[in-house]
Amino acid sequence: MSNRTLRLDFAPKPRRMTDAGVAVLLLCAALLLAAAWPVSQMLATRAELQASLATQQAQRDARSRPAARAVVTDPAERTRLRALRRVAQNLTTPWADVLESLEAAPNQAVALLSVEPSAAKRNLRITAEARDAHDMLAYLAALQQDPRLSGVVLLSHQVQTQAPGMPLRFQVQAGWGPAP
């Protein structure tokens, strides 16, 4: 047997980087940076768009939500607000329907003396004169049949003895729409 030494190489020697390897490594790093730049720009644009969308949604929700009523402590401001509410209520009253219902009732023998509306109570008080009780009751029945009026009632009646023909003066109260 010969005495030859056996060399086992369990760990190979480290390889040296060649110039070509370094050039490929630098080229790959440059390509990675070139690809990452547009991606970072798109992510920044996406974040801006999401913030803009959130702002627009918050504004839309704020517009659709009923505004919280501010507490008014100034008496002059409170009086002004009450007056504004009365005006708004008068403007939303269906005056055309109310007047049409009064005109639609047969009133050849009835003379309207006054019509006093109350928008706050959603009713009106009518003062009229009729030749006799039959005409008064016919007018009252016609008002009660009108679907635009509700709760038509005779409040009072009185014979006018000093007037020629002794007419019958009466008051009627009627409401319109749903009760407040």
Describe this entry's structure for a reader:
By secondary structure, the protein is an alpha+beta fold. Among the domains are: 22-59; 94-176, 2-Layer Sandwich (Gyrase A, domain 2). The protein is built from four helices and four strands, in the order αααββαββ. The protein has helices at 19-64, 75-91, 95-104, 133-145; strands spanning 110-118, 123-130, 149-159, 168-176. Strands 1-2-4-3 form a four-stranded antiparallel beta sheet, covered by helices on one side. It is rod-shaped. The model has no long low-confidence stretch (mean pLDDT 83).
Task: Give a quick rundown of the structure.
Helices cover 48% and strands 21% of the residues. The chain is of the alpha+beta class. A four-stranded antiparallel β-sheet has the order 1-2-4-3, with helices on one face.
Question: Per CATH, which architecture of the domain at 94-176?
Answer: 2-Layer Sandwich
The N- to C-terminal Cα distance equals 123 Å
Largest sheet: 4 strands, antiparallel
Shape: rod-shaped
Specify the structural class: alpha+beta
CATH superfamily of the domain at 94-176: General secretion pathway protein M, EpsM
CATH topology label of the domain at 94-176: Gyrase A, domain 2
Biggest sheet: strands side by side, in what order? 1-2-4-3
> Strand tally, please?
4
- The sequence of SSEs as H and E is HHHEEHEE
What is the assembly state of the chains in this entry? single chain
Strand content: 15-25%
Low-confidence stretches: none
Q: What's the CATH first level of the domain at 94-176?
A: Alpha Beta
Rg from C-alpha positions? Answer: 46 Å
Helical proportion, percent range: 40-55%
The overall pLDDT, averaged over residues, is: 83
Number of helices: 4
